[in-house]
UniProtKB/TrEMBL annotation:
<protein>
    <submittedName>
        <fullName>VOC family protein</fullName>
    </submittedName>
</protein>
<dbReference type="InterPro" id="IPR029068">
    <property type="entry name" value="Glyas_Bleomycin-R_OHBP_Dase"/>
</dbReference>
<dbReference type="Pfam" id="PF00903">
    <property type="entry name" value="Glyoxalase"/>
</dbReference>
<dbReference type="InterPro" id="IPR052393">
    <property type="entry name" value="Cadmium-induced_rsp"/>
</dbReference>
<dbReference type="InterPro" id="IPR004360">
    <property type="entry name" value="Glyas_Fos-R_dOase_dom"/>
</dbReference>
<feature type="domain" description="VOC">
    <location>
        <begin position="4"/>
        <end position="128"/>
    </location>
</feature>
<dbReference type="InterPro" id="IPR037523">
    <property type="entry name" value="VOC_core"/>
</dbReference>
Amino acid sequence: MSAVLTHIALHVFDLDACITFYQDYAGLKLIHQRENKAGGEVVWLAEEGREQEFILVLLPGGLGRKQLDTDFSHLGFALPSRAAVDAIAEQADLDGILAWATREEPYPVGYYCGLRDPDGNFVEFSYGQPLGPGADAAKLN
């Protein structure tokens, strides 16, 4: 039997700021929210239509992440076009959270930019990788 990755859970310093970031930048929807036994909230975010496939769980009580610029650990989101990557990068630059300007790298990386979420995690937005939107275009290159 194979295991299926269903979620990633992150303790975050500012729960509300992280919810807003993932709603505004990644288009995630709040699909579940409850108080946990330890006295904090548990929040589930998911892409529209994928609520039973993969979720991002956010939990309060994190210390904030001091991720080094040389640490490329990140969450990755695929976008439907290069223009969508450009739009995210432009807004992130205005918001002061652009970590990696847009760039093109050879297959399978594609076109991408990186942001820092309110907790300090890198978040990549890409087009042309062999998964998600743009996967078919990546095969042609």
